[in-house]
Amino acid sequence: MKIPRLLQAVLVLAGVYFGFVLVFDVILDAVIPSSLLAMYMFFATAGVFMVFTYDEEQTRELVAPIKALVEDPSKRPWRNIVFAILPLAAGAGTYVQMQPSLEAPLELRTIHPAPPSTAKIYGKRVNLLKLENPFRKIEKEDPDRFRELVGEGAAVYIRNCQFCHGDKLDGRGPYADALNPTPLNFQDVGTIAQLQESYLFWRITTGGPGLPKEAAPWISSMPVWQDFLKEDEVWKVILFLYDYTGHRPRSWEHE
Amino acid sequence: MTYRIAVAALLYAMFLSGPALAQSGDVDRGEAIYQTRCLQCHGDEGDGLGPAAERLNPPPRDFTLGLYKFITSAFDADLPNDGDIIRMIRDGMPGTAMPGWGDLLSEQDILDVTAFIKVFAELEGAPEGQIDHGAQVPTSPESIAAGDRLFHASERCSECHGVQGKGDAVKKLKNDNGDRTWPRNLTKPWTFRASNGVKDIFARITAGIPTTQMPSFADPKSKKRLSIEERWHVANYVASLAKTDKVVRPENTVIQAARLAGALPGDPDDGAWAQAPPSTFFMLPQLVGRERFFTTANDTVSVRALYNDTAIALHLEWDDRTRSLPGDAAAKAIADEELYEDAFAVQFPVTIPRGMEKPYFLMGDAAKPVNLWRWSSGTTDKAGSIKLIDAQGIAAQEVRESHGLTALASYKDGTWRLVMTRPRATGTPDRDLQFEEGRFIPIAFFAWDGSNSEAGTQHAMTTWYWLLLKPSTGAQPIIGAVIAVFLIGGLLAWWGRSAGRTPS
Fold first, then answer.
1. Which residue from A97, A171, B15, B224 could staple onto A185, CB 3.0 to 4.6 Å apart?
2. Are residues B203 and B261 in the same domain?
3. Can you tell me the ipTM of this complex?
4. In A, which residues are within 8 Å of B103 by CB distance?
5. Residue B479 has pLDDT above 80, yes or no
6. CB contact A72 to B (< 8 Å)
């Protein structure tokens, strides 16, 4: 059985709508802001309209049921019902639209902004492009010493970072629920696994206030860790983050 | 295809039944897991003295004692059930730094770790007695009322947990290790270490909480002993205390201030506040700026707001087990080494941001200063007072004369209620926030529990939320709706008529 073109279009749009709701509200567990959903649906509707009116034949097929409803005398009772419902729906929609918005303003921020090429860290200008973890080479040279360094990094982490990022490095520390934006989940393949160690060093040492404007430094609760930790402690924490999660830092070398 | 599904289903079934088949854990495997997952808090020796210990409240468990707090074995048994330990590892303990490991460790891993941590205290075999659940009394208004009576009769429970169940102890409690402990605030279900399900509450009442001063109410030697049925009543009552409108709803980030025609209620206990629904936010310790603090006492604040033509009033409510009154002997006796005033502050930007950019959430910065309305509870020599502070960061604060900012507070049964009132407009819009209707105004909160050594930069806090003075819309939406109905209706009628005339 062939599904009428109009119903097809409606089904596609419904699919897109529930797709967004599924991805955001259910899978990502972050309710999609209505303004964002409206924007997405606008583009989806425009796209569907363009596809379904590709040539005249298709256009005619699309509007045929509407034409029939209005013009076919045998469908008059249905037409009257539709013509009564539409104005009422428009009125209700207008009423809701004109209520003042009680939804918090959207705050779109870049989570991993592009790093500057240099930054002032521990009182000296550092070239982030060339910066490397001084302990990384020990991983191959002296595995036992490397385990010790990871252990020291773990102790620094547990004394300072777990409150927000959690014992399991999953961003679900005991105070994670009190924070907005929420702490980063290092277990996720989309965070430290995508970044270089120098990037982590920059993010940790300069914290929220060190972010560029597109990342909304005023709301990030990441402390400026160069005020609290020594340089080698930061590098050890970075060793620990990769070791515990099993991720590898990104590097310029092609392995 | 069907064959494949059958095999998959079989494998899945085996996977599910696997843990049930596995009877015991492997100590050596458990030790290896312990070394990577547990040692940082619980320590190399299992003594709870890992590097994190001093910054955690409650402190990590000392396994060498072999004593566990949340047990289902009898109060006089010398062992917990393995299941009690397994559950703590798998599900974690809300309100502590102990996460649930069930997503990272398999059931077998957890059995192995359990076997290993029992070695620290040489715990062997199974406990001799189990708690007797008898016949569970289902919850009902009658059962809750009976539990209410038993809870308060001769201060059986209220002696420590307080008249309203807020845990506002009048005694300084310590555990067997000499660490300070606090009776549970029973109105905060998210802090119950082993869930606030009725069965779990019954288990705590029956077995007590070993190492703490929570006794067993099944102990026949106890003067406060309760029968099984009575314990179910108390459990039902305690479970009912958790049903409050002051719970955090993560999607709620906007405090909606309703408009009043007349005067604003200045008294925090005024019934008029009931018409403003509370918004509750989690607080965290000040971990961001110097000097940090790790073990705050307050974890939530509930906020209400009302406004009229000329003024705005904020109603702030937070649970505090102690009224910190410097100079008072009783307050001194229950406090930590130092006793300061309790305090609370509300933070606003000086101007409502036009774009996204707000002042730095922790007391602003040089480019974007904030206003702090900081109330302190007073001492035996001076009454409570409120100050207006201009802040450009946690270390750059300056007190300024307030423009009609007033505060009134009350403390009762473990809860502070505080109303702050200010005119909506002041003569100095470059220094004071002007409260406009319909604008989203950033707002943040800070709290100090003076009996918990909280003072200066050491306090609890929130990040930015929003305050909205809900504008009155008048008749506009109705008029808009009517116009829309006639417009669309007219167009459709015209279409219908012209279509009817066209021969198709």
1. A171
2. no
3. 0.88
4. 168
5. yes
6. yes
